[in-house]
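Marked as duplicate of an earlier ticket. Keeping the data here for the record.
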Amino acid sequence: MQKKRLGCLTGTGIVAALITILAITGFTFVQGGSLFSPGALNAHQTGAVLGNVHSHAETGGNCGACHTAPWDSATMADRCTACHADIATQMRQVATLHGQLANKGPVVVACYDCHPDHRGPTAALVDMSSQQFPHEGLGFSLKGHTRNVNGTGFTCQDCHTTDIKTFTQTTCVSCHGQIDVAFMQAHIVAYGPNCLACHDGVDRFSKAFSHAGFTFTLTGKHASVACDKCHNQAFKLTDFAAAPKDCFSCHKQNDSHAGRFGQNCVTCHSAEGWTPAKFDHNLAAFKLTGAHANVSCPQCHINNVFKGTPTDCYSCHKQKDPHNGQFGTDCSACHTNTSWSEVTFDHNKSNFPLTGAHSNVACAKCHASGQFKGLNTACVSCHQDPVFHAGVLGTDCASCHTTTAWSPAQFNRSHPSFGEEGGVNHGGATCRTCHPTTVTTFTCLACHNSNNPSGN
């Protein structure tokens, strides 16, 4: 019966595997680990002895001098700082470059991000190109600075012109001034030269910036207002956030009311336009009704005086008072705000009630020249003694006439010729029947003539 093979686990296979392992181990021992090395280490010497060597190359291919096994608790950074103790000290000082990188989480900065090796004995140990240097760890992103004005890619020297550890903000002005010099000049005047106080490289204040995400949204006329009009002397982000959100803080300089209406501008004004204002006069002590609703504000509020404006009629209407103050100052006793000419004066409350034909007489007929108070109420003051009376009947018009009509008159006194019975015997006659011209002349022939001796 033939024995079953166990794959490559034959005597020959096992021997071949052992020979291969021994060969690799021997080569590694002889070559000092170069079999696994990605390249030669840097041989630059500073004169100082760190970790018993003058350069990385002097480690003699001892990978463990810098690299740690996956199961070790130590990291490669621990190996670096064990030798570079001065850098370990800097990482605990936030004011230093390494301190900022170590304390600017959540960005994790490894030593090899800036100090790569295995690139040959003469290659630089510092490589801080914008493509790999974690600039976000310093509080300024390079995402918005990938290209220069001329289209070339940014290098460290474009911003750090003298020393990689230092940066002057005049570089910002110089570079952005090439894009728009007028804008930069105005921008510095408005917000100061400290660019980093507001800008962190992520373009938060670019043209795509929207005010809609804030408590004060820009609507109406506010949408076209320049930022520095509201954010005046804003030299850092906290200054922008501290800008007042009420109308009066910005508009008090142009307040035509001089603060007399308080500081709640939105009661009358809107963001759509400072004028026209929409003041609800019903909120005031003086409601605008009738013809007052169409009166322009300056007619009552002369010289923009609002608070304390009198609310009585006479203060505004006294200049056009046809009564010249004879009726006092209570205009509303006769007039309404519907129309000045719509008079509601009750003459029956005066000492001369209007009855009969008097009720239809225009005011000016009796109140000539605008005189009202102190008028003579005697009939003769308006009704002059007619020529017919010949001045012999006196001025007591009411003894014969009534307000119903001036004629026919009723002679109520004893007739000088016929006595009290004269009115009975001549009841059908009028005064002019017997006195055709004046009361001092008379004739009987108007009735008693040859054709009618009895006068009937």
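See parent ticket for discussion. The chain has 16 helices and no strands.
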